[in-house]
Specification:
The complex is a heterodimer of chains A (229) and B (301). Chain A is mainly beta and 229 residues long. In chain A, 14% of the residues lie in helices and 38% in strands. Chain A is built from four helices and 14 strands. A six-stranded antiparallel β-barrel of chain A has the order 1-2-5-4-3-6. A six-stranded mixed β-sheet of chain A has the order 9-8-7-10-11-14, with helices on both faces. In chain A, a hairpin with a 2-residue loop joins strand 4 and strand 5. The longest helix of chain A is centred in the last third of the chain and has 11 residues. Chain A is globular. With 301 residues, chain B is α/β, with parallel strands linked by helices. In chain B, the strands form four sheets. An eight-stranded parallel barrel of chain B has the order 3-4-7-8-9-10-15-16, surrounded by six helices. In chain B, helix 4 packs parallel to helix 6, helix 6 packs parallel to helix 7 and helix 9 packs across helix 11. Chain B is globular. Classes of the chains: A mainly beta (229), B alpha/beta (301).
Chain lengths: 229, 301
Amino acid sequence: MAKVISNDCLGSDMYLLKVCGNYKGKMGQFYMLRAWDNYPLLSRPISIYDMGEGYISFLYKVVGKGTTLLSKLKVDDEINLEGPYGNGFPKIQGKIAIVGGGMGIAPLYLAAKTIKNVDVYLGFRDKAILVEEYKKQVDNVYVSIGNNVTDDLDVSKYDYIFTCGPKEMMKKIVEMAKESNTIVYVSMEKRMACGVGACLVCTCQTKHGNKKTCKDGPVFLGEEVFYNE
Amino acid sequence: MSNKLEVKFSSLKFKNPVIMASGTFGFGKEYQEIYDIEKLGGISCKGLTLHKKEGNKGNRIHETAAGMLNSVGLENPGVEGFIQNELSFFENLDLIKITNVGGSTIEDYIKAIEILSKEKIDMIELNISCPNVKEGGMAFGINDGIARRVIKEARKATKLPLVVKLSPNAEDIIKMAVACEEEGADGISLVNTFKAMAIDIKSRSNIFQNTYAGLSGPAIKPIALRMVHEVCHNVSIPVFGMGGITNYKDALEFIMVGATCIQVGTANFINPRIGLDIIDGIENFMLEENIKSLDEIRGII
């Protein structure tokens, strides 16, 4: 069990939870979070937002019972973390853009912090969050509120794009990339049970057949994934 | 771990009575990355069908109060895919290796069993109870007359110990268990998931494309326990008891109503090391209560 350092509401039901301890993990991976005994039954898969000496943090939105319970955690409360799970974003060289929409910004901060020399595009429906944090890590942070974040994006300027957010947004970026040689990596979100690749409930349909979002993903090559399932 | 946890099940000796249930543990690899799975008594692998299956489309999981519904639909690599890609890891594990076999026709069951029986595995678990495939095994698992046919053929198809995994949706669970025994099964696994459903009230539609899904988890434990109790009092072959076991106390309840071993399923998703916790819990209980062998408490209720 680990102890909560802070659990701050950032508005619009979004919270940043910081937990004490030295954890393993890399950009795009996730942990299964559990801060209750029996109910809800399953732990909640939440991607790593940030990590460093003595802490790890998670950005999440309150959508159901599990995240409601997470939102009530206070300093020094106990929480159980299992992980890190998933493949994460690849370590690659080239000109990289990071594109996040809404809660999709959650797994991208650690990518910005790890890679440093990237351009970041953040899209929000009504209120921007954590922009200053991103600006501490990279020089070019483009923010759009209420518009499509893809409107500001010239895909052809980049060798690679890491993206996470609404399916329509990721699908559009993948389509835009077809006209250039840009390679897109998407981080998918699915309901999970085990988190380790054993139960097969988080199936992601791809051109290469069923993949496990938890184990083969959550990061996939954008062109491989079927977005309409 | 002492060997007082050793359990004899038919002709096999399990190092302890804790087995990971089919469909919740893959072929073991994923959990081996988390802990030493050879401390477990056994693994029942992901249900295999003769041919590869893609499984169901749409939602595959829905959480409920004290349980979960799944509609995976027996996604698996097929018998040959298993032998090519999974067997080399699975067969070298130092524990009892059970292959769970599903099917939609008797011929498919039998072919799959014949092929698997040539490999280095310890036991066949005949799954006649999956609620998540349309023409699937469940039809065999409801009516004891139909079940007899597939069990009889399966018995002829393998020399390996054969257990039959029963559906809690059977018309008469006792009749079904008796049919297993009479047709030569070496044991019984019960229960599989309960046929159930869930609705999305906003879209006014079923959560699952197949309408029905399988309910598992703590919600089903009291009913599963009753069924294991009934069956253990009516057959003399050993039983793997399962259904919502999430801790050592649950496991002991199933043993006290007569289960020889227990299987753990959904609890693996709550705590990936639950198998070890249950083994330790049983061992501590035996120490505290001065129980020398599980035979002392098995079936005492």
